[in-house]
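Researcher: I'd like a candidate sequence for this fold, 312 residues long. If you have to choose between options at a position, lean toward the conservative one.
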């Protein structure tokens, strides 16, 4: 039987990923530094992109989907007049066109790309077609039909504009491809555009200002490896963007046993982060039709409380 390597460390590491590294490379580097047995990231950032990449360790991997699904904030820079095979500066140039864009025209294009949108995912993406990644097909020169998907851009703010480039900051829903958004804006302007820099500033309630770099982690690891645990954010803090619900010890014990609870107070249907005394995080539950259903519960080190009562 193969022994699992690494420590049973749990929590969320807010990493400021550098450009030039894939999300998985950044994850594996952080995992080795923490000597963690179990780890996963919460949605990829392209090697071109930098910024906030929450990494989940141990029990936090059970709730990584809720960070993956959170709204995000990006700062993006684009070059006008040039389109590429990948939609960013890593691709080959497809076409060059003259640029005649002023602030008023760009503002109108940004307004037209704010709100509910239908977006066609790029061929150079990790989505699958018949079991194969789209980027693998694209590298072979193949193109397949990709159905448009609904996304939402709640804010698209112009930060800078010069003769050949512009910079924006945006808040968007999960699944939004900023590369595709930049390409669509470029086409609306009649000159084309491609992404040249991307930085993720926020994931849900988490901000890049809270994040640490790999260089910082290496410095801490060289000085005192055990001190790396202090860099982890508690699982509950990483889920602050979701509805919160506190249960009595008795109801918490019932939920941990897999029992559904009847809600005493109205709660909108959907996911909720569940706690008990002293804000101890139990896990994720789903509210539906006046009941609370256990879904993604984390392991508890404390002794279980004997269940009594029948409502939450």
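Model: Candidate sequence:
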């Amino acid at each position: 039987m193969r022994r699992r390597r690494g420590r049973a460390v749990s929590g969320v590491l807010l990493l400021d990923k550098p450009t030039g590294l894939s999300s998985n490379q950044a994850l594996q580097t952080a995992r080795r530094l923490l000597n963690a047995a179990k780890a996963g990231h919460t949605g990829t950032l392209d090697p071109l992109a930098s910024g906030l990449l929450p990494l989940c360790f141990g029990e936090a991997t059970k709730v990584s989907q809720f960070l993956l699904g959170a709204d995000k904030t990006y700062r993006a820079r684009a070059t006008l007049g040039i389109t590429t095979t990948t939609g960013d500066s890593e691709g080959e140039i497809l076409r060059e066109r003259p640029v005649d864009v002023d602030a008023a025209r760009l503002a109108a294009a940004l307004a037209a790309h704010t709100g509910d949108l239908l977006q066609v995912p790029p061929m150079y993406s990790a989505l699958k077609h018949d079991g194969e990644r789209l980027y693998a097909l694209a590298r072979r020169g193949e193109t397949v039909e990709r159905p448009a998907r609904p996304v939402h851009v709640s804010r698209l703010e112009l930060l800078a504009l010069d003769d050949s480039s512009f910079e924006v900051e945006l808040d968007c829903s999960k699944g939004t491809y900023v590369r595709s958004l930049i390409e669509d804006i470029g086409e609306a302007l009649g000159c084309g555009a491609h992404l040249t820099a991307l930085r993720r500033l926020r994931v849900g309630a988490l901000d890049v200002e809270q994040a640490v770099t790999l260089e910082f982690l290496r410095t801490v690891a060289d000085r005192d490896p055990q001190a790396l645990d202090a860099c982890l954010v508690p699982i509950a803090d990483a889920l602050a963007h979701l509805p919160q619900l506190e249960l009595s010890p008795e109801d918490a014990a019932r939920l941990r046993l897999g029992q559904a609870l009847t809600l005493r107070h109205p709660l909108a249907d959907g996911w909720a982060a569940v706690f008990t005394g002293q804000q101890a995080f139990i896990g994720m539950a789903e509210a539906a039709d006046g009941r609370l259903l256990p879904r993604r519960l984390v392991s508890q080190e404390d002794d279980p409380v004997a269940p009594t009562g029948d409502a939450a």
